Amino acid sequence: MEAGVDHRLREMEAREVTRRVIFLDIDGVLAPIRQWDRYGDLEPACIQILNEIAAEGGADVVVSSTWRYGKTVAELQARLEAAGFTGCVVDTTPTGALGTARAAEIAAWLGEHAVESYVIIDDHVDMGALRGRLVLTHPSRGLQPTDASRAIALLMQPTNGGPPC
To answer: Is the overall model pTM greater than 0.90, yes or no?
Structure first.
């Protein structure tokens, strides 16, 4: 019986190392911002594109959006599922001190978790050394069909170890 347990543990560790992750912003990605003084609602078409990326890329979601403040992973999962998301939210990035760049929060998460590859989907370009893994959306349009192929390609491209910073 111990051999079976060891085998399952090795399988779980192998899955952790081969994990693919989507670092997801929400406003301007899944919720287009059509007026600067009012943030948008989750857009079903954008959610469907995220579903395609997650399924074809074999990836889970780590929420890097400000939507993570005051919400559990389960609450974020439920909110996205209610809008049609079929993938899995597995975590959120850590929240740094006020003014901490999102890139630093993503790098901190990567420093604590082994991943094969990742993509950042965001409407802000300020990703520093992680910019090569960014799929940049236009805030008023959100995630578009043309973004899916680039995101999937990045997920299929191994990172060769830890974060590049």
So the answer is: no
CATH of the domain at 138: 3.40.50.1000
Work out how many domains the chain is built from and give that number: 1
pLDDT tens digits, one per residue of 60-93: 999 998 888 888 999 999 999 999 999 999 999 9
Its domain, for residue 31, covers: 19-156
Angle at 90 between CA 118 and CA 74, to 5 degrees: 150
Is residue 120 one of the residues assigned to a domain? yes
CA-CA distance, 104 to 77, in Å (whole number)?
Answer: 24
How do residues 3-30 score in pLDDT, each as one tens digit? 555 544 444 444 454 589 999 999 999 9
